[in-house]
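DATA SHEET
Item: assembly model
Revision: 1
Owner: S.N.
Input lines:
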Amino acid sequence: MTISNGARAALLALALVTNRGGVAHAADEPAPAIAQGSGDGAPGSRPWQVAAGVRAALFRGRGYDPFSTNDAFTQFSATATWAVATGRALATAVGVGWESGSADAQARGADTNLSLTRLALVLEERFAPRPWAFAFARVSPGWLRGTASLDDPAVAAPLRTTFSTFSFDASAGAAARLNPRASRVGFWLVGDAGYGWAPDQHLALAPALSAADHDKAGATTLADLAPRGVFLRFAVALAF
Amino acid sequence: MNQPRSPRATAALRVLVPLLCLGLAALGCGGRSPTWSAPVGSAQAIGLTNAVVLVDLPAHRAVALGVDPSGALAETALPTGHGVVATAVGPKGGRLYVLSAGHQGGLGDPQAEEAPRLTIIDGTTTPATSHDIPLDVLSDPLDGLAIDPTEHWAVVYAASGTGTAFVTNPNELVIVDLTGAKPPQPVVLHSFGGHPERLIFAPPLTLPAGLTHLLVVQSDQDFTLLALDDPTKPDITVRLADATAVTRPHPAEVVFDDGDPVMTDDARIGVRFDAQTSVMTLQLEPAAGPSGYAPTINVADVGGVPSAIAFVRTDGGLRLSALVPGRSAAVLVDPATTTTSVVALPAGYRSLSLVTAPAVASAGAAAGPDLALLWNGTTPLAGVAFWELGRASGLPFRSIETVGINGVVTDVRDVAGQNDALKVLSTSGGTATGGAFFVLDLGARTATPLLTATPDVTLSVSPTGARVWAFQVGGLGLASTELPSGRVHSLTVDTPASALFEITRADGGQSLVVLHEGVGVGATVFDADKPNEAGRRIYGALLTEGSYDDQ
């Protein structure tokens, strides 16, 4: 199981922040785009949020077994949203999300790899009971693209297949501000949990031959891959 | 200077950080069957009529590779028991028999108890199917398996030592009725101290009790004859040396003859021994007792150590022929009188095959005395020789006709179907850089040479008899030689070949499956009837498709 270099960088940043203890002070400011009375907590005062972190999902189906020794699948996750206040403690955000990651393992001695990339629309409702924290619910319809490969020296080329499909995420989470209110940029720790759904994918791996030899490639069918399951996502976010 | 942490922020972290830890711990849960981490290794590959079967020991299954009408490979996973100890292909070539020891679990063992069982994989259907015969009569697993030529019975026995059992009786056999008509029947042979070394199935013999299927259990010091039709009948033990003998002759070959099918007193068994100049015949004659027959033993000296024996029909009647390469001769033994007659041969031959039926059919002649093919000569120029046994008594010097073949014939393969008058001969000691094999026409008595680029070529005759395949293990080249025309089609595969099998497709056509061993198992499939590289299909990771849910 691996995650991209971007995800590693995000994890490193998260660790540094935690170690520094760079957390909020008594002079807190409101959550992004949520009004907290007058002044700089006005609606729309912090409409933009960009977040980067790690998403870890559980794929329980047997179709995932060739690609991982456990059921976990981790991805780098990036989100950009724009929010507008809809009430004293409420805001609605829209944006886009991009997640990418891969899993590696050995299946009966052969090296395998599964890569998944997801591009999605983000719709989020935020509730901020306190200026230093907010809770949110998110739905995210998206497009999932996957590549599965298996390297068997018994054939002249690695076995490979790709697929693309609709997917849908629903999650709920919370965020806490990590830096003082006086800062012009809010620095937030965001976590959410939910369920990501995508339909079963038929995995028929065939040697990746040239176009001229494409009709010579016979397919080896693995169990259907079910790229869905509960997930946890943690990110650090900048609000401005 | 760091400012003091807000109590609210601290509270938030106290919620989020444990959540993070719990989440990561949860993601570490779950897993897959250990079989996924077990390498494929060297999967045993067996060719059946309609499928190539890969025995996947770590996964406790067999994977049958069939070919659908479009020429695509179709995989069927069939479970076997745990602890496979023996496999055997049925003599008819359509079924694979897999004997598994099962599993005896201890306290806390998550794996369920499993009794020994025999799994029969039927490769005559598309897709292949399987069924099990439980062997609950075995408290401990036996590791030997033999299948009779009619595939009516299987015999399970102790092939090696004690295996995993604490105590084993090597003379215990289990007779399994493969039709399922009777439950497995354990039998304990009478023993004079020996233990079975080899099980030999006799062809149906006409005995006083009727047509009987005898099992000959060869031990290091005696023979036991057991009627498979009714294993409850007492077995008959034939001691190969008297009780005072210090040395015991070790049987090397056993042959049978039913005699006249309407007679019940002329079935015979012939035996030759390692490093002995004598041959033995046993005539099974009517006798009192539950078996209804008893063997009468005759012994004859053939003047040298024989290398092959066979019952043959000559112009003088039934004889036991013995090839004595040291004398460059064949000796005919009258089984009734033990008188011998010597037939001088142009060279010493070590092997003999009866080719009467195909040769007679090819010539359109009526059935008569036998025709034998002599091969495996003691010199490279010996080639093969036809031995007409219709002249063996009257004109023995005119009964031999040789066919010149450069090299020692090491193997003779039958050709099925309409080309059964042909034989494919493997040779050794051919050309300096390559090798050769020959297609022998029994009717015309000619041998067509086929030269190969390397000497270590493996031959495989098509089950239909339409062609013979040649390939080199680990090589990229292979060739089909059409029979009887001898036209050669050369083919190339993309990765080294480890084995090849011609099987019947679902639509009745023939396909060639070439296996490649790497980390997994790959295959290239050709249309055997119209072999060309453009139409091949390449498959990989053939044992990686499993779900392994049963682990």
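QC remark: Residues 5-20 of chain A form the longest helix (16 residues).
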